[in-house]
Amino acid sequence: MKKILLHIFLILLAILVVLCLAGWVTLSIAYRTNGSLIAAGETRRYLLYVPDSYDPSTPTPLVISFHGLAAWPDQMAKISRWNDLADEQGFLVVYPMGTGSPLAWRTDGDPGLAQEVAFISGLIDQLEGEYHLDPKRIYANGYSQGGAMSFALSCELSERIAAIGSAAGGITLPWDKCSPPRPVPAIVFHGDADPRIPFKGGPSSMFDFPFPRVDDWVQTLAERNGCLTEPRALPDSSEASGVQYTGCDQGAEVTYYTIHGGGHTWPGGVVGYPLPEWITGNGYTSDDIDATRLMWDFFLHHPLE
């Protein structure tokens, strides 16, 4: 009997080891990166995509794309399809990796934000040493907390980041901690049915944080960028409407799209790629507009002067 119990125990132990190894392998694949650097005393990692069309003799734009809370670089690449557009348009894309477990960005203020800024500044330095980047065309964008990270960079690294983009961004950095030496152009997307970062502001069922009302936050951003009071309406689609604030200081325009019925997702993103439901709230992903292409078009019109 003891031998039978021991045999069963060893079988169960073997199954447990196999499951643990399988989980570790799956996580390792999901968390794959191909570059690293030391910044602010931390080892930080990133996933870089260089299209086959890259020409070392030509100054090349760089797009920095931040994943959301509890997500990872390869996931951001999959849902946004920045790599496909990079192949078509000939720019580099880098997906930085957050810290902690789950992976996150320290966007609320110092000292954590200073460490994140040191990472991204060091990342740009490293890539400029390895590739022929165009310093006037370095852009940042992100999903959810990654959108908050992009905004934080517009406050802390405006001398290097030409323009930013955000989709379903959960902004947590207070305005009194954002005083950039130059206004940064921005393009913003948010679903009015977002269950995680409420369109009307306030805490959500997941995050006990007083998020700003998205309309008000965008208007404040436009005012701080010195834009004209009344925005210009953009052509509507069946599921989205947009406005653009123009006449801004140093050309720092603000474009803002509301996704009607849109959830906590990337508009035009890959719906089938697994995003945990606890992150998206099983919200609707509109394919009526393509946030990636619209961001790139906006970036093209807003290089550093």
What topology does this entry show?
Layout: H1 2-30, E1 35-39, E2 42-49, E3 60-66, H2 73-80, H3 82-89, E4 92-96, H4 112-130, E5 133-143, H5 145-156, E6 163-167, E7 186-191, H6 214-224, E8 232-234, E9 240-245, E10 254-259, H7 277-280, H8 291-300
Parallel strand pairs: 3-4, 3-5, 5-6, 6-7, 7-10
Antiparallel strand pairs: 1-2, 2-4, 8-9, 9-10
Brief description of this entry?
Helices cover 33% and strands 20% of the residues. The chain has eight helices and ten strands.
Protein model, in words:
- The chain has 305 residues and is an alpha/beta fold.
- It has two domains: 1-30; 37-300, Rossmann fold.
- It is 33% helix and 20% strand.
- The protein is built from eight helices and ten strands.
- The protein has helices at residues 2-30, 73-80, 82-89, 112-130, 145-156, 214-224, 277-280, 291-300; strands at residues 35-39, 42-49, 60-66, 92-96, 133-143, 163-167, 186-191, 232-234, 240-245, 254-259.
- It has a ten-stranded mixed β-sheet with strand order 1-2-4-3-5-6-7-10-9-8, sandwiched between helices.
- A hairpin with a 5-residue loop joins β8 and β9.
- The longest helix is centred in the N-terminal third of the chain and has 29 residues, at 2-30.
- The radius of gyration is 21 Å and the shape is globular.
- The chain starts with a helix and ends in a 5-residue tail after the last helix.
- 40% of the residues are buried.
- Residues 4-10 and 12-28 have low confidence and may be disordered.
